[in-house]
Design brief:
The complex is a heterodimer of chains A (340) and B (270). Chain A has 340 residues and is α/β, with parallel strands linked by helices. Helix content of chain A is 38%, strand content 14%. In chain B, helix 1 runs parallel beside helix 8. Classes of the chains: A alpha/beta (340), B alpha/beta (270).
Chain lengths: 340, 270
């Protein structure tokens, strides 16, 4: 495993030639293991009710935003729209409120999503192994759970209350999901929340430990950069584009087969370049508000974070083809999930 | 393949590759993943002259709007669906059933992989899936780690061919498992041995064919090449060359010198 001082050395190296070399290696490895393909997915927010207070998040419980939870009919309407854009991998999201969006609600959402999407992932409050197993059997194949930061003291500073304040329970979420049969797990850190090198090392150790204990799971990682919300800045450090690209390339070199996701919170100019460097999955045509695709006008929306890349799924597909990439929409055929 | 030696009267006649009673005159199989676009895929199929391609069911979109990969596979090419994504025998079996229900036919390449880091096949689960699917009438070609016991079990389970890996999937490392594949070639004569995975260069394909492998399957190397169709053609030629070399009973490299008999030569001295 790489050491902290090695990561720091890489992130702090100012040489353009060094960065170019890193990028060339990353590109070569990515093309060897993934070919020239990019998988596409979209988020769909089911609810923004939240009982956790995470200072940096637009949905946190103390924020005075309008709270919504989609009804069954509304879910279908939103899902039908997203599927109509060409998306086949859906990421269903909620805030961290077990009471408002309990297991039964998530099962209902998975049941609805099965009508439209071959592949369903969730990014919701952490749950127990048994609950993941039930969701798996209801058609959920993927779980996304970001630790945000692995720095315990910083974690406590920014996660003030609610279930998310429990560092250890969140850390073990990926393990519980894997035990519940989930096929793909996505981890991530919110860049800027704490020391980047330390968080990267801890993320790598987390992925490594999961690979060792649950080798059958497909892992991917995300590196969202912390953004100001309504002008308020929560970042402890600024992660510029060069550091950001280095993080992608270093991750690719260390984990050749791990997927690397890139969301629409990054600008189109950067997304278009990052394509060549190690990214394997992109969101497209995204909206990060509950009901944002069809139910709420833009004035009525309170997004979790602001989107920088507003291009449609169709635009992204065209772009990928122009760049000699195969946009992969279909990457799973639903089979009846059963725990062996 | 038949060959004519113009300077000699003798002609080396090859027999076709026969899998489940179906004859193939071409011994190169192509995987269809990782191509940057489907035109490259179609051109590579044509340039390689392959008669058997494998497609992951997870990538086949029959009902929806995305351009369907199957439209790029010529009609005279046999389609073999693979069970990519299956982590155990039960999932492989379910995927095979879905493939049949989707009209993709009965040719199934079993891939049971429960390790996302190395993508090594789970031999035990592969045998189980082979047994069930072969009984159900599928034509089963299992991808496996080259282990003689497992190869025998696969034959007994009804496999139509055995597909040992050359090296890790997508690694382009060639015949890392060469010595063990040789054992399979020597010992398994009931069904063809098709070397799958890790074949990164035509020379590696030729080497496997020279050893007596019945066919080669490649994918990543072709898909990732700057000019996929040209590399596909190169693979076709290399597989032909390797096959011809094998048929020619080419003298194999020896580990010890054989020009003289230092230990027993004295027995023949007058």
């Amino acid at each position: 495993m790489i050491t902290l001082s090695e990561i720091k050395g890489i992130l702090n190296n100012p040489s353009p030639e060094f960065l170019e070399d890193l990028a060339q290696q990353s590109k070569q490895i990515t093309q060897q293991y993934f070919g020239r393909t990019i998988s596409l997915y979209a988020p769909l927010y089911l609810s923004n009710f939240c009982s956790s207070h995470c200072t940096y998040c637009g949905f946190h419980s103390h924020n005075r935003i309008k709270r919504f939870k989609l009804t069954d009919k509304e879910m279908h309407q939103e899902m039908k729209f997203v599927a109509g854009q060409g998306i086949e991998n859906i990421l269903l999201l909620t805030g961290e409120s077990y009471n408002v969006t309990p297991l039964s609600y998530l099962k209902q959402a998975a049941g609805a999503a099965k009508h439209y999407f071959p592949s369903i992932a969730i990014e919701v409050h952490p749950m127990e192994t048994q609950e993941y197993q039930e969701l798996f059997e209801h058609g959920v194949d993927g779980v996304t759970v970001y630790q945000e930061t692995y720095d315990r003291s910083r974690y406590a500073q920014v996660h003030l209350s609610g279930t998310k304040a429990d560092y250890d329970y969140r850390y073990a979420t990926a393990q519980r999901a894997a035990q519940g049969g989930i096929r793909s797990i996505s981890l991530g850190i919110l860049l800027g929340l704490a020391d980047v090198a330390e968080d990267l090392l801890a993320l790598y150790q987390h992925v490594h430990a999961l690979e060792k204990n649950f080798p059958g799971v497909e892992y991917s990682v995300s590196f969202p950069r912390l953004k100001p919300i309504k002008g308020e800045n929560f970042a402890k450090c600024y992660v510029d584009d060069r550091i950001f690209i280095k993080i992608i390339c270093l991750t690719r070199i260390l984990f050749p087969r791990v997927g690397i996701n890139l969301s629409t919170r990054e600008k189109p100019q950067l997304r278009d370049r990052a394509l060549e460097l190690g990214i394997t999955r992109m969101s497209a045509g995204s909206n990060t508000s509950v009901g944002g695709y069809t139910l709420k006008s833009s004035e009525e929306q309170d997004p979790q974070f602001d989107i920088e890349d507003h291009r449609s799924v169709k635009d992204i597909i065209t772009l990928l083809k122009q760049r000699n990439f195969d946009p992969v929409l279909t990457d799973w055929r639903r089979i009846e999930n059963k725990i062996p | 393949m038949s060959t004519t030696q113009t300077d000699q009267s003798e002609t080396l006649q090859d027999t076709p590759l026969v899998i489940a009673k179906k004859s193939f005159t071409n011994r190169f199989l192509l995987g269809t993943g990782k191509f940057k676009n489907k035109i490259d895929l179609r051109d590579s199929i044509l340039a390689s002259q392959t008669q058997l391609v494998t497609v992951a069911l997870r990538r086949i979109d029959l009902e929806r709007h995305e351009e369907n990969i199957l439209e790029y596979i010529p009609e005279n090419v046999t389609l073999m669906t693979n069970t990519s994504g299956a982590r155990n025998a039960k999932e492989a079996i379910r995927i095979a059933h879905l493939a049949r229900e989707s009209g993709c036919g009965l040719w199934i390449k079993i891939e049971v992989i429960n390790d996302s880091k190395y993508l090594l096949p789970d031999n035990e689960e592969t045998v189980k899936a082979t047994e069930t699917l072969a009984k159900e009438g599928f034509i089963v070609l299992p991808y496996m780690y080259p282990d003689l016991y497992v190869a025998r079990a696969l034959v007994k389970a009804g496999a139509a061919a055995v597909m040992p890996l050359g090296s890790l999937i997508g690694s382009n490392q060639g015949l890392k498992a060469k010595e063990f594949i040789k054992i399979l070639i020597q010992e398994i004569d009931e069904v063809p041995i098709i070397v799958d995975a890790g074949i990164g260069a035509p020379s590696q394909a030729a080497e496997a064919m020279e050893m007596g492998a019945d066919a080669i399957l490649a994918n990543t190397a072709v898909a990732a090449a700057g000019h996929p169709a040209e590399l596909a053609q190169a693979f076709h030629l290399a597989v032909q060359a390797g096959r011809l070399a094998y048929l020619s009973q080419m003298p194999l490299p020896q580990d010890i010198a054989s020009a003289s008999s230092p230990l027993t030569g004295f027995l023949y001295e007058s």
